[in-house]
Amino acid sequence: MNPTQNPLEQLRDIHLPDTINSWILAPGWWTVIIALTVFSVYLARRWFVRRSRLKLLKPASIELKAIENLTPDNQAITRLSALLKRICLIYYPAKKVASLSGDDWITFLNQHTDKPLLDEVSTKLFTQVAYQPAQILEKSQWLKLVRQSEQIINYIIRNEGQKNTGRIINKTSQDKALKMESSQ
User: Can you tell me the distance from the alpha carbon of 104 to that of 127, in angstroms, rounded to the nearest whole number?
Assistant: First the structure.
């Protein structure tokens, strides 16, 4: 080094470092972001499927309440059975459900719940009293039959719809059932 040369002249100007991009994240953070996104999509899909599956529960409950308030006679029992059949036609193949009547219909309903809900008295009401001329039921029998039917409807809509999420439930059949329920 030359003694006459000023050492400060050898210094370079101050330079600023490169700007730091705010989106440069460590790979671990990207993993967390991707995992949260996937989990959010999963939850949204699950919520949507559950919501669409339970869409029939409200109109079915409304119609069931209207049927409950009818005079408990053979026509009311027929309407109750028709409601059960319409709901079953949505969740089960029509070949299995449409032709069922009498004891076969009651057996089908009892087999497709976690435990048989319709007892001997209810079976008799659905299979025999419905076809007898103008017979009025006792209020307690009628309310018991309506409650049992409500349990069956809840079970079918909540559980069978869940089992059938792999099989897309026919949207047009759901729409038809909703229209039928709302028109009555």
Answer: 10
